[in-house]
Amino acid sequence: MPFADRPPSSAWEQVPFADEPQTWFWAWFKPGGAPHGLVVRIPDETYRNPARRLPLTLRRVLAAAGVAPPLVAMWSLYGTAYDAQQGANPALDYPIPESGMAADPSLHIFLHALAAPFAAPATRAPVVAPGAAPGGAAGDAFARIDAEWNLCQQLEVQLAGAATQLSGTLSRINSLNRDLSPDEARAADQLDKKDWQEARRWLRDVAGRVSRFLKDQHIGMTSNAGKRSSFETIYEQYVVPRRQFDGIVQAERDFEQYHKTLQTLLNNMNAAQTSAAQDGERRAQQILTRIAAKVRALRGKR
Question: 0.85 exceeded by the pTM?
Answer without folding.
Answer: no
